[in-house]
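Provenance and format

Records in this collection were gathered into a single text stream. Each protein contributes a sequence line and a C-alpha cell line. The two records reproduced below are adjacent in the stream.
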Amino acid sequence: MPDIYNILSKHFAKEASKEENQLVEKFKLDQPEEYKSLKNLWSKSDFPIEEYDKEAAWVKLTNKTAKPNKNKVYQLYRNISIAAILLVLVSFFAVKHFGPEGSAFVEPVQIIAIGGPERVKKLELEDGSIIYLSKTAKLSYPERFDGNSRTVSLEGEAFFEIARDETKPFRVKTEHSDVEVLGTSFNVNSMAIQTQVSVATGKVQVNSNSSDEMAILLPNESVIVNNKNFELSKSKNQNYLSWKTGVFQFEDATIKEVVQELNEFYGNKISLKKENSDCLLSASFNNLELKQALEIVELSCRLKLKTNKNNYELH
C-alpha cells in the first residue's frame, strides 16, 4: 500500500499524479470525515504531511513503546476517531514547530482579531506589507517570514497592500482558496460559505482548495470561490472597499441594496420596512454620519425615517 500521507501531501499541494489522485479519491470515499479533517488542518497550518513522523506519533497515541509496523499503522488509522487523528497531526505540528526540547516555537504565530467598537485595524508586517482588517476579521501570521514564501491565514475580510518581493511570493490562505501574489493590492472576503477576491492593482493568482481551477485576476476583476463553484467576473460592486474607506457610490441601486451595504459598515442599525419600494438611488456618501446618509435616502426615495435611540427604520 503506498504511503497515504505522502500522497495526501502531494494532493493538497496540487502536485499529485493522476494515479495518486485516484488513490486519494478512493480514500475520500472510504474515509470522508478523516479526509476533510486533514484537508482543513493542511489549509490552516501550511505544513507538509509527508514530513510527519508516523511511528513516533502512533507510539504516543497508543501508549506503546514498540515501533509499530507501517502497514498496521494505516489499518489502525482507518478505525480510530477523528479526534485521535487530529491529536496525531497536532503532535507532528509540535515536533516541526517546536525546538528539540519542545519549549519554544521556531516560527511564532501572531493572531490578530478586532474587538470592541473599532471598525478597521491597520497592521504592518515585517516585510513592509500593510493589511487592513475589518471588524469581523481574524489574521494568523508568523513573526517573520522565513523560507521561500510569505504565508498568512485569513477569516473574515481584509485589504492587502503587499510589498513586492519576486523571490518570496505572498500567500493568503482561506477556507476556500489559496491566493498568491508578488506585490499588489487586493481585497479578500473569506466567509463560511465562500471566499471573494477583488483586485485593486497588479495581478493576483487564486487557486481553489476543492478543485484544480485557478485564475489570474487583473485590476477590477473578482472571483468567488466555494466548494462547488469558481466564478470569475468584473468587479460589479464598486463599494467592495467601503468597509475600509467609509465611501459609498450608488448608481441606480435598489433601497434593499443600499440598506444592506450601509448596515455592513454601520453595524446593522437600519431596518427597512418598505422593501418593495421601486426607488433607484444614485448618490455618493463620503464618511457621513449614519443619520445624515439616511436623511438623503429618505428625501431621495420619499420614505419616512424613524429613529429609536441608535437604530433607524425606513418606512
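Adjacent record:
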Amino acid sequence: MPIKVNLDRVMAERNMSLSELASRIDITLANLSILKTGKAKAVRFSTLEALCRELDCQPADILEFTEK
C-alpha cells in the first residue's frame, strides 16, 4: 500500500508508549496497534485529530504517501 504510517516514529520522538497514547485518545490498544503497524484499512478523522492533538503534530507527520 502506498500509504506509510509513521506513528511509531512520532511516538518515539515524544517518548510516548502505545498504552499511554491509547488511553489519552480513548481508543483500544488493539485498534491503535493495528493503525501503528499499518494494517488498518481506514482511519477516522476524529482519530487522526486526536492523535495529532496528543502528539502535537500534523497529519503528514503520521501518514506518508510513497509511490511504489
